[in-house]
Amino acid sequence: MTNADGTTFTGVHWMLATPFDEDERVDLESTARLVEKARETGCNGVVALGVTGEVARLTDKERTCVARKVINAAAGLPVTIGTSANSTSAAIEYSREAQELGASAVMISAPTMGKPNPGALLDHYRRISEAIDLPIVVQDYPQTSGVHMSPAFIAELAENIPSARYLKLEDPPTPTKISAIRSLIGDRMAIFGGLGGVFLLDELSRGSAGAMTGFAYPEVLLEIYRAMAEGDRGRAEAVFYRTLPLLLFEFQEGIGVAIRKHALWHRGLIQCPQVRRPGPGITEETRQEFLDLARQVGLE
């Protein structure tokens, strides 16, 4: 499963938040700082314009600016750009632009469908694959798309669309689904976990290639991944179970993006923790709980 540029995706690909200033303007300086943090930490790649990057609240012009900034700042670090859209034509347009800007891959979720149709969804991915020369990261996230992809459908994707080389699996229980997919297609599609890293240890045990997620402390995800890759499960378990309370705290439904941005701001990686409206903020109590928990797990 090698990309056109000779690379193969494994390890930790950090999902980037989209920083805004107090007036909700895109903060490209902080965007570059996040990419630099990924490089310094040793991440295997970065992913921009995903759900937790608040892509749905960006204009097309802003999407282009963010993609260009991330790719330029990456300086060779693999960059996956989210190009999901509710029409095949729009997804093709976003994907072509990502390719022109120099992305390493595109990440595409199922479009919202009034009545999900596996044939139409397969055609959606096929048409996109025929329009670009980049590998596709298929994002399986029914909580946001409303579309459930069965293991059999994912196997059909892998069989019929060679450029669908990667799966970002966010349909829990993810370890169980990894095993189900593996039983059908073997290693033909590399599977990455998401969901804030809360299932990372078991996902790696079941054969995942790593993680594509945005936990504010990517060094933790990398330490777990590297320990498992080296066969040191004991060390991986020690890190995972020590930090799991913070992984779960940051991944709270509804306010997870706000907590993550506060954590990134607290670490000095972004200039402002602003979430673009109508996204939720967090209370002072939640901020204090984050600080207390970060100290308790040894990350403060």
Give a quick precis of the structure.
The chain has 300 residues and is α/β, with parallel strands linked by helices.
Structure commentary:
Helix 9 packs antiparallel against helix 10. Helix content is 48%, strand content 12%. It has a single domain (11-232), classed as TIM Barrel, CATH 3.20.20. It is globular. The longest helix is centred in the C-terminal third of the chain and has 18 residues, at 233-250. By secondary structure, the chain is α/β, with parallel strands linked by helices. The protein has helices at residues 28-41, 60-74, 88-101, 118-131, 142-145, 151-160, 174-185, 200-205, 218-229, 233-250, 256-266, 284-296, and strands at residues 11-15, 45-48, 79-82, 105-109, 136-140, 166-169, 190-193, 210-213.
CATH architecture: Alpha-Beta Barrel
Rounded mean pLDDT score: 95
- What's the domain count? 1
Helix proportion range:
40-55%
Number of helices: 12
Q: Say what the CATH topology is.
A: TIM Barrel
Structural descriptors:
300 residues; TIM Barrel; 48% helix; eight-stranded parallel beta barrel; 8 strands; alpha/beta
